[in-house]
């Protein structure tokens, strides 16, 4: 949307919003909230720079405003424009015009509405010369001007200290459009309530006493407390920091996404009126119950739970356990939003000065409003294709209105494109040998550019350790993030540090582990309440080739037994000697061998006289075989069980995270397979000989199928769709 | 591939460096020829042609976009570029210049400071053409002034780069001379991506092969 050009370098707008768009804090939030509301109308909106010399020249535009401009909400006015006109100009920082407007294009506004969004007094005196500001506004922007405070305290300060300044009789009350903030709260089942507080640089008010702060943000193991920003102030007030507190850097995520991951917004300090508690209003708009001290009622109205700090823990436990009462508080907050802080009220105020179309009468089309929604999938690939395969299984089962796009470091990304999904390659330092931190700093902007292009409604990561570059990119892109995290991590407490990264995700989905009883890793006791779905596999039982067709495709003799060997990529373990033992035994037992070759194998291990299969997915051919000799990675293990192919497991013990041996040993204990003990690989011939007994194989196959009866890919896809639908 | 280099690479003269790189190449050729002899004939190999929708781009349009990306990069570094950005200063990440693997063929360069990156575009080349082009680059790397190559490709077969441990970037589009003008939003994305690529590798030009 461009302003109507009326002359060279000139524009005619309906409304112009003027301020320093690089600023952060209450004034910037006020401007951004107004712009968000106005962008829902069919108006020509311009943005006029008023440069604040106090800000560094390199400071970027505030991210919330930048995002709106990126979505074509308004047009920045060029500095050399010479004939800008508009019906109404909203001026957000009058102190910036007190010293003149020489560097600003001359504007002809029918009315200038000066929005007073922050206290006038600084160190007991006026913060700028209002008379000079009035004069410069009249000279450069428009003769008719209206000065309008946003809160009673600001009104009182201007009324008492700005002599001769006429204030508009009604406040321009803060507003936040619910549509821009509302997300659905995650289901509470089995999850500790999450309390949060946003501490902005201009609103870092904390209680004077540490006891009050600790009362409002209790150090209780059944509660999780998160702060966005304010780490320094918090650390100074409370030492040591409670174990259940999570301190996030101010830019670790957007305010909207931070609020989306909370159950309660808790804000406690002594003076609620000095600066409007904007983040609490945003939390109300996001649909989270606000808990605040009783003194906040005068500012926020009815709806929030007003409690003394010592009652916060009890209140959140109660409301978390009783969704009906939580909903009742929300309903009351929503009523207050509609009554006191509604965008309609803001528009009604503007309507006194300019004719406006009705809100939502002509909503601007949003890129996400299209019928199909993109969903981004980011599988890492370690030494196999497990993460890729799992996300492919889920992607192909998403609802039809979702369009998957993949970002991956997988060198075998051809299989993803072959499956019909667009794929972007994301290099990893382990492959291109770049320095890790440099790589993160260089890759995050690349990912962010891609996210902005594909505009996904959700971002799904599958891997053991969420990639730093992805987390950084997601911090600047507002979409729900989901971590698909399989269990069966090694019983190494040090791996627990990765679990804390789940706070950067809106949901964790855990494809179940058939061998869950043997899972002694940290994910087994994870407190981030993952959504558990049955084991995820790419192929359903009906997707496999029938036995005769599979044998024919692989050129196998129908009358002789055949075994599939899938030892893994060999990228991190020695599969050569294992293969030699198997080849030698097979030749003695007249067993036909097909050795699966991993698509990303660095150094293929090949032996003369052996048939190799370089395919994806291998499971399609399972019915060609009487048995398998296999590593015990998540996908291979569950595919073999689900499809009932009797298996001799040779676990890869060199995995950093995945505990293959525990998985395989469990299968043996259940009579659904055999796990070759460590160091006994040379005895594989005796295992193979035993597996030539059809009755043994039948029994194992039956047990295996019973242990892994369901493919959870559909359920995982549904869970992802649900998270995305929450917003 | 551990190779003890004598004399130490740190005090090697340019002439010695060239000799060392040639020695590395000799060893690599030896290893590769040994591997080739072991390739079995009894293999069932599936292929994975892309079945997803990718943007189509004619060669002329591609050349124009590459040229524009390079011009933008030059502008980006200039005072005029800074002035343009100041009109609406979005956050501009500080991107370090990466130093990737020089490739197994010249792996000794890994420990040599100051070796420049050179970005080569192999867009529109099939596997055979890409391999031939990589061979030419690696030969040049071995015989001429030392450099670290980075390849831009739009073919999803990464084998040659993975085998030789060469840095590459993949751009998912199809070279198609029958294609109309690129979709503007995708073209803008492609240009933004190329701009980041040039910054990441610290170069202003892309060498099209």
UniProtKB/TrEMBL annotation, chain A:
Pfam short name (any one): Glyco_tran_28_C
Domain Glycosyl transferase family 28 C-terminal: 618-694
Cleaved signal peptide residues: none
InterPro entries hit by this protein: Glyco_trans_28_C
Top-level division of the source organism's lineage: Bacteria
Record-linked PANTHER family: GLYCOSYLTRANSFERASE, UDP-N-ACETYLGLUCOSAMINE--N-ACETYLMURAMYL-(PENTAPEPTIDE) PYROPHOSPHORYL-UNDECAPRENOL N-ACETYLGLUCOSAMINE TRANSFERASE 1
The name this protein goes by in its record: Glycosyltransferase
From TrEMBL, chain B:
Organism the protein comes from: Benzoatithermus flavus
UniProt-recorded name of the protein: Uncharacterized protein
């Amino acid at each position: 949307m461009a302003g109507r050009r009326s002359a060279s370098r000139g524009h005619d707008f309906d409304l112009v919003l003027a301020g320093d768009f690089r600023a952060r804090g209450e004034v910037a939030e006020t401007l951004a909230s107004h712009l968000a509301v106005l962008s829902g109308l069919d108006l020509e909106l311009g943005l006029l720079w008023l440069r604040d010399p106090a800000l560094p020249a390199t400071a970027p535009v505030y991210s919330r405003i930048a995002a709106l401009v990126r979505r074509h909400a308004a047009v920045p006015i060029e500095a050399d424009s010479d004939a800008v006109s508009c019906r109404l100009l909203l001026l957000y920082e009058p102190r910036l015009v007190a010293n003149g407007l020489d560097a600003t294009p001359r504007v002809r506004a029918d009315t200038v509405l000066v929005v007073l969004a922050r206290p006038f007094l600084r160190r007991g005196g006026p913060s700028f010369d209002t008379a000079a500001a009035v004069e410069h506004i009249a000279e450069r922007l428009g003769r008719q001007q209206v000065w309008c405070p946003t809160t009673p305290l600001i009104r009182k300060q201007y009324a008492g200290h700005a002599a001769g300044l006429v204030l508009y009789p009604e406040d321009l009350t803060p507003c936040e459009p619910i549509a821009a903030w509302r997300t659905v709260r995650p289901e509470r089942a089995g999850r500790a309530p999450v309390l949060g507080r946003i501490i902005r640089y201009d609103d870092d008010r904390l209680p004077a006493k540490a006891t009050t702060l600790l009362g409002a943000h209790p150090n209780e193991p059944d509660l999780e407390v998160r702060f966005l920003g304010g780490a320094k102030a918090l650390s100074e007030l409370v030492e040591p920091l409670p174990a259940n507190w999570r301190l996030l850097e101010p830019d670790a995520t957007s305010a909207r996404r931070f609020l989306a991951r909370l159950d309660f917004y808790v804000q406690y300090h002594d003076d609620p009126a000095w600066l409007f508690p904007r983040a609490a209003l945003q939390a109300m708009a996001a649909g989270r119950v606000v808990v605040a001290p009783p003194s906040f009622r005068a500012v926020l109205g009815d709806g929030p739970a007003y409690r003394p700090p010592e009652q916060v823990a009890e209140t959140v436990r109660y409301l978390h356990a009783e969704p009906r009462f939580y909903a009742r508080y929300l309903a009351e907050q929503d009523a207050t939003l509609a009554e006191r802080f509604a965008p309609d009220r803001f528009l009604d105020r503007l309507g006194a000065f300019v004719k406006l179309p009705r809100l939502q009468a002509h909503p601007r089309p949003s890129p996400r409003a299209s019928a199909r929604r993109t969903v981004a999938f980011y599988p890492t690939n370690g030494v196999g294709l497990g993460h890729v395969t799992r996300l492919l299984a889920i992607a192909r089962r998403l609802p039809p209105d979702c369009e998957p796009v993949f970002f991956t470091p997988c060198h075998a990304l051809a299989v993803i494109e072959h499956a019909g999904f667009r794929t972007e390659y994301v290099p990893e330092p382990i492959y291109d040998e770049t320095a890790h931190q440099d790589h993160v700093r260089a890759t995050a902007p690349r990912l962010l550019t891609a996210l902005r292009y594909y505009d996904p409604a959700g971002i799904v990561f599958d891997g053991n350790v969420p990639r730093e570059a992805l987390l950084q990119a997601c911090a600047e892109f507002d979409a729900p993030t989901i971590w698909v995290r399989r269990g069966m991590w090694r019983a190494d407490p040090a791996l627990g540090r990765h679990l804390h990264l789940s706070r950067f995700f809106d949901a964790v989905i855990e494809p179940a582990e058939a061998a869950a009883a043997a899972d002694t890793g940290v994910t087994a006791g994870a407190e981030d309440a993952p959504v558990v779905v049955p084991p995820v596999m790419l192929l359903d039982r009906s997707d496999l080739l029938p036995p005769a067709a599979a044998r024919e495709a692989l050129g196998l003799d129908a009358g002789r037994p055949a075994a599939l060997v899938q030892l893994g990529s060999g990228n991190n373990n020695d599969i050569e000697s294992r293969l030699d033992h198997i080849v030698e035994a097979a030749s003695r037992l007249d067993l036909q061998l097909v050795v699966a070759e991993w698509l990303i194998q660095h150094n293929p291990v090949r032996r003369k006289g052996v048939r190799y299969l370089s395919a994806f997915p291998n499971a399609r051919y399972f019915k060609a075989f009487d048995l398998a000799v296999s590593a015990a990675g998540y996908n291979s293990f569950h595919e073999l069980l689900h499809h009932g192919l009797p298996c001799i497991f040779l676990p890869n013990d060199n995995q950093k995270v995945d505990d293959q041996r525990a998985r395989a040993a469990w299968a043996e204990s259940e009579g659904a397979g055999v796990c070759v003990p460590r160091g006994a690989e040379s005895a594989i011939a005796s295992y193979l000989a035993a597996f030539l007994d059809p009755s043994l194989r039948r029994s194992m196959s039956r047990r295996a199928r019973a242990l892994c009866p369901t493919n959870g890919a559909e359920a995982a896809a549904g869970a992802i769709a649900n998270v995305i639908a929450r917003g | 591939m551990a190779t003890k280099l004598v004399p130490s690479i740190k005090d090697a003269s340019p002439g010695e460096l060239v000799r060392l790189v040639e020695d590395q190449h000799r060893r690599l050729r030896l290893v590769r020829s040994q591997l080739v002899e072991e390739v079995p004939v009894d293999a069932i190999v599936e292929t994975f042609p892309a079945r997803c929708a990718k943007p189509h781009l004619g060669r002329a349009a591609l050349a124009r976009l590459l040229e524009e990306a390079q011009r933008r990069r030059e502008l980006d570094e200039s005072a005029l570029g800074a002035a343009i950005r100041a009109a609406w200063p979005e956050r501009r990440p500080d991107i370090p210049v990466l130093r990737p693997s020089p490739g197994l063929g010249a792996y000794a360069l890994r420990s040599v400071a100051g070796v420049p990156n050179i970005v080569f575009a192999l867009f529109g080349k099939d596997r055979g053409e890409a391999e031939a082009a990589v061979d030419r680059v690696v030969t040049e790397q071995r015989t001429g002034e030392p450099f670290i190559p980075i390849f831009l490709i739009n073919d999803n077969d990464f084998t040659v780069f993975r085998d030789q441990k060469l840095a590459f970037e993949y751009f998912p589009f199809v070279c198609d001379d029958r294609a109309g003008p690129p979709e503007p939003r995708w073209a803008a994305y492609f240009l933004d991506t190329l701009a980041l690529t040039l910054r990441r590798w610290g170069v202003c030009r892309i060498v099209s092969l």
